[in-house]
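Database export, one record per block. Field names are fixed; values are copied verbatim from the stored entry.
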Amino acid sequence: MADHHHKAFNANDYVPKRFGLNYSPPQIIIEYLAPSTGKLYHHKMRLHKFKKDKSSAEVMKELYERHQVYLDKKKVSSEQLLKLIERLKQNFVPRKKKDENQKNSEKKEEKKKIKK
């Protein structure tokens, strides 16, 4: 079973094993092995403000900036990362925004609950 948090990440004790994708919210999950312990870990890389029309190269640049220790170019090729981003874009379903009226009625309900 994979752990979700590796408290003391060591870039020298890190072997990427496989990737996973979440479509809602859009994320790339990297599973990696820490050879010193033999344990597997997951690191989730959320794609903030992800849009289908955003260039894959731009998304990849943002991922490299935010998760550079996990995306060592010697261990994870940019070609592989681009393919994952493209798969996310193909299957991406934007979250539906709540209707403004529904939001307002929910706020009114909250206020009623607080007053009681």
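Remark 1: Residues 1-6 have pLDDT under 50 and may be disordered.
Remark 2: The first helix runs from residue 56 to 66.
End of record.
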